[in-house]
Amino acid sequence: xxxxxxxxxxxxxxxxxxxxxxxxxxxxxxxxxxxxxxxxxxxxxxxxxxxxxxxxxxxxxxxxxxxxxxxxxxxxxxxxxxxxxxxxxxxxxxxxxxxxxxxxxxxxxxxxxxxxxxxxxxxxxxxxxxxxxxxxxxxxxxxxxxxxxxxxxxxxxxxxxxxxxxxxxxxxxxxxxxxxxxxxxxxxxxxxxxxxxxxxxxxxxxxxxxxxxxxxxxxxxxxxxxxxxxxxxxxxxxxxxxxxxxxxxxxxxxxxxxxxxxxxxxxxxxxxxxxxxxxxxxx
Length: 283
Ligand SMILES: C[S@@+](CC[C@H](N)C(=O)[O-])C[C@H]1O[C@@H](n2cnc3c(N)ncnc32)[C@H](O)[C@@H]1O
Ligand code: SF4
Known about the structure:
By secondary structure, the protein is of the alpha/beta class. The chain has helices spanning about 10-15, 55-65, 65-70, 90-100, 115-125, 140-150, 155-165, 185-195, 260, 270-280; strands at about 1-5, 20-25, 70-75, 105-110, 130-135, 170-175, 195-205, 230, 235-240, 265-270.
């Protein structure tokens, strides 16, 4: 699947090298995040109707031959239905792009809990200074992180991120915020920084809907609920609660904070003022 941001004039954007390609390179995933579009919250298996698919290097070369690569502004391998690192050819695809274009950078979003530290080092070497990987870090303990990032291992992710960040490629962290990790945002930022991330972005989960109406079913639409109840793999009912970040609506300059000034912002972890804003928001 290839996604395009709304483009007023495709040809003009193509000619001006402005296109950002958002591509689902795979529908495979090791993780079982309860609110993900690919996850059935009733048992955390993949939703039935989603086929398991992935791009091969050959598919990619066919869609983006060498003469087209430099017309693209950026490749964004995040997607909606799986994790790009599960793609068997991801390393070769990154290598193909980097070796055959002048693209400023390629971005990959991942739960980071698969493959070895050696593999991650190799990916960083291949991507060099033109690859940025966004690692999901949702807590400072395994329990906190995996309440949402089910079936992932925080220590493994941190080791992988550290190994990757020892190359010229860049690692940054991404954190989905609920009630259970809202007060840990500053600690998550510090941990991410210590293990190699140059920055961090926080977002609030707003995917609160009824268990019998998961996203992706496309039939009933969403029925919003206060809490999100899911059934884990051992058949236990569990609960996720929204962060209820207290936005005041007042400006960032005053002592109050505004959700829009904080979430979806990329915070530079080498900047003390940014760290201070995260610390303030975590209170
Ligand atoms: C389906 S994931 C695909 C990429 C990769 N597997 C990952 O999780 O980073 C796409 C994006 O959705 C984000 N995401 C997952 N659960 C979310 C939630 N409950 N609310 C908002 N974003 C969420 C992920 O962190 C990721 O940035
Ligand atoms: S890691 Fe990404 S694709 Fe996998 S289940 Fe979680 S949100 Fe979905």
